[in-house]
Amino acid sequence: MPDATSPDATAPDATSPDPTSPAAGPAASEQGRRPSAARADLRLLRSEMALVLSRRRNLVMLGVLVLLTALVGVGIELASSDGPDGGGGPPFLATVTENGLFLAFAALTASLPVFLPLVVAVVAGESVAGEASNGTLRYLLVTPVDRTRLLAVKLVATVLYAALAALAVSLTGVVVGLLLFPVGDVVLLSGTTAPYAEGLLRLAAVTAYVVAMLTTVAALGLLVSTLTEVPVAAMSATAIVVVLVQIMGQVPQLSWLHPWLFTDGWLRFADLLRDPVADDGVAGGLLLQLGWVVVLVAAAWARMTSKDVTS
């Protein structure tokens, strides 16, 4: 047993400084700040998501997406009952009526050009401009929340809402498809057959791809929202830009520009319905969105960090 009066028993190890002493200095302080900063970011994100989901307009938009998807299913069912040719409807009607899972794919295809970007534009356009309009942005920045973190939280919250919107369309398509149409093995675009469970996994991948496409709209709306204090103006401008870019994508004289438009790869998720998956198109679409998101977020950050907040 060591002597109680020995240095080993009474003195701390000289090689391990006390974290409470000044000698611990910046290292211990930095280690203590990191978990605290992460918890603060999570609290800020939860608060932002609660704010987004507490707005009645945002909940109504989710409900409208669910209703539209259900109406698409009912419309296809009514059209298919007119005769074997589906009442002269579009060719995908036969695919949906043969397997209800394709209703989810059809609903995503129909919603992506207009409805999904519109709801994301509304949330993104209000993210910063809404705070400025209500006079809460200045007080929010008085707290220990720097502008970069605030901008990042606003973007993540908008992308999470976009994910909720895409999931609402997908899940409604699956449920309505189960209720109205037969389900079973899925015939992929390549002609091969996959089990229904694999079809659900491919639907999850398609939904994730759609969310990635909507991330660019969220970044665009965030940028526009930093340029004005009028939320409606930010929402409208974001939606108009998305529509204009899609129109440009349909003009043959601008074919040289098409590969650079952020809407160019939106419908490439069809490659996820092939066996094997044609990953070149999917990877190209994701890379294009990544480039646009980096540019738009950088521009929003430059504007936000140099903005003179007066309200």
From TrEMBL:
Source organism, top-level taxon: Bacteria
Regions crossing the membrane: 59-80, 100-124, 155-181, 201-223, 230-249, 282-302
UniProt key word GTP-binding: no
Biased composition (Low complexity): 1-29
Region (Disordered): 1-36
Pfam families: ABC2_membrane_2
UniProt keyword list: Membrane, Transmembrane, Transmembrane helix
Record-given protein name: ABC transporter permease
Organism, as annotated: Pseudokineococcus basanitobsidens
